[in-house]
Amino acid sequence: MNIMDNNLREVEQLIMESDFDPAGGNPEKSLKADVMENYVEQLLSAIDLRQLKPYKVVANTVNATAGPVINALEKKLPFDIVKVHNVFDRSFPNGVPDSNDQAMRDYTAAAVREQEADMGVLWDLDFGRCCLFDEKGEVIEGECKTRGMLVWILVLALLAKSDCRTVSELLPDRSFCFEKLVESLKQLSK
Question: What residue stretches are annotated with the Alpha-D-phosphohexomutase alpha/beta/alpha domain (predicted)?
């Protein structure tokens, strides 16, 4: 499955058609698997790593599931990632992760300005949605299509390939759409 495709309904159908009844003669089995490496490779397959630049990025994972993914991505990306609330904690000591929460946005914006970062990202609980911040800490609204972890990587890949020097130049209308990011990246890759 390619992460760029929207095939969650296909996965749901496969699960619904599967026989998970242990009484059906299949002994219950437990399998421990680490899917992080495969997930990270799928994310990175959408871009050309050789063309990325060493941007500084504030990543606010709000103690949720994006934290471990950022830790794994950090090892493969040339970015200086400033991690905020990055330790996974089910009690969410810094509030429930919500990329629309104004207090969390303010906190992330302040961190972008304080760190003099090129960009900031704030994710929701399952990192399907995100809120981006330009180099001045200004919010950039957008539609992730449940691909919040991929969006920020696409934006920085676009920035590296374009003639723009900053995220605010790349996204001057202060918004983004997943499909448009993908299409722009394809156009610049020709």
Answer: 38-137
